[in-house]
Amino acid sequence: MSSDETTTPTPSDDAPQFVLPLVVRIERTEPPARTDALETAARAVLTLLSDDRSLGEGEWAQAVRDWQDARIRKVVRRARGAEWRRAEALPGITVTGKSAEVRVFPPVPLDGWPKELARLQVSGTDLDDPEPPADPDAATPVLWLSPDLDMSAGKAMAQAGHGAQLAWWELSGEDRTAWIEAGFPLAVRTAAPDRWERLVTSGLPLVRDAGFTEIAPGSCTVVADHPALRLDRR
Question: Residue 3's CB: how many other CB atoms inside 10 A?
Fold first, then answer.
């Protein structure tokens, strides 16, 4: 697993840095499918961003504002058994996919992790898909992964979360409401090389990694292809 941040310009890179913790449940005997874990992580980010506690005067709102005023850094850790139960006892939101469970927590300072989360492992687990994921419907928002990068499951989960967040920022209020009411349908897929070439120049939200882990700084990792944004850019 890994920690990530985008290179999208922020009001001040000198601002105090916060991180959005995500924990994926990975039991020894029943690990989640890789694609489902990526999609569930992306929905978890959207769920937190749209939660009343993250908005206005909500109890998480200041932490979310502080985090978004700097870089949208995310860290994905893994847990099982008692570790997962301790993580679930902390304030946060658990989002469930077909086989994956991901819990997202309000942002914390880089050096201010709750001890129950700080002790969780960041690396050491690979996830696989038992069979290739089906092609997404044309009306489904798709977070397209670069075909040129070999990312661990945790790295890809964080990058998918970044892509979902960038799409969320660019949507109108009406389109956000529609996405919420539909339950945040989305797909994560690896783009074919020719599609990827078109996507990175399409004007759709594009994630560039800061290069702290696994890949080179400035690498393009995800394009967020939401139909509501696609209409304006293609």
Answer: 19
